[in-house]
Amino acid sequence: MSEAGSAHRRGRVRTLAAMVLAAALVAVLGMQALGHARLTRTFPADQAELSTVPQAVCLWFSEPVERAFSRFEVRDAAGQRVDDQEAWRNSELSKGASDHVVVPLLPIGPGEYTVTWEVLSVDTHRTRGEFRFTVLPGAGAAQGEDAGQNGCVVPVS
User: Fold this and answer.
1) Domain 39-144 carries which CATH code?
2) What span, in angstroms and rounded, lies between the C-alpha atoms of 57 and 59?
3) Helix/strand/coil (H, E, C) string of the chain?
4) pLDDT tens for each residue of 19-33
5) Are strands 48-53 and 126-141 parallel, antiparallel or unpaired?
6) Could you report the per-residue pLDDT of 80-136, keeping only the tens digit for each?
7) Could you tell me if 12 and 101 are in contact, meaning their C-beta atoms sit under 8 angstroms apart?
8) Which of 42, 59, 111, 144 is deepest in the core (most CB within 10 A)?
9) CB atoms within 10 A of CB 47
10) What is the largest CA-CA distance in the chain?
11) pTM for the full predicted model
12) What distance in Å separates the CA atoms of residue 35 and residue 27, rounded to the nearest whole number?
């Protein structure tokens, strides 16, 4: 085999090896992306300043999460929990898998709040995060159409 032919063959082998490596990386990264529930939207939004008092916090994920094996907490600036744990446990809100989670709140007033969450995807991957919102002084309860416009509605049991 000539030197030119040998060099050409080595070039083809390198190209093939690079393509196989690239395909493997895409497959691995793609599987990781599929295996994690990403937070796609919240109400209230992160860093929101609200002029109406929310009755619940809602989280939307990129894929269903096992609500019974996930954790959601809402705390005020003093570190006190303000999520209604009893309402959560005793309702359909905490059962099954869904890409939408509703966390009912106890009555809250003006102040800063931190929402922390840790979810278990239906494919057993865990992800976690947090976000904050503020209820402004003088905030009132949502009335009429405003109560459900954000898509975050607390079901009546």
Assistant:
1) 2.60.40.1220
2) 7
3) CCHHHHHHHHHHHHHHHHHHHHHHHHHHHHHHHHCCCCEEEEECCCCEEEEEECCEEEEEEEEEEEHHHCEEEEEECCCCECECHHHHHCCHHHCCEEEEEEEEECCCCCEEEEEEEEEEECCCCEEEEEEEEEEEEEEEECCHHHHCCCCCCCCCC
4) 555 444 444 444 444
5) parallel
6) 999 998 888 888 888 889 999 999 999 999 999 999 999 998 888 899 999 999 999
7) no
8) 59
9) 9
10) 86
11) 0.73
12) 12
At 120, which amino acid appears? L
From residue 133, give the alpha-carbon distance in Å to each of 49, 75, 136, 145: 6, 11, 10, 22
Residue 139 tokens read as 């905030």
Name the residue type at position 16. L
Measuring CA to CA, which residue among 57, 16, 18 is closest to residue 39? 57
Phi and psi at 112, nearest 5°, equal -100, 140
Structure tokens at 64: 């269903």
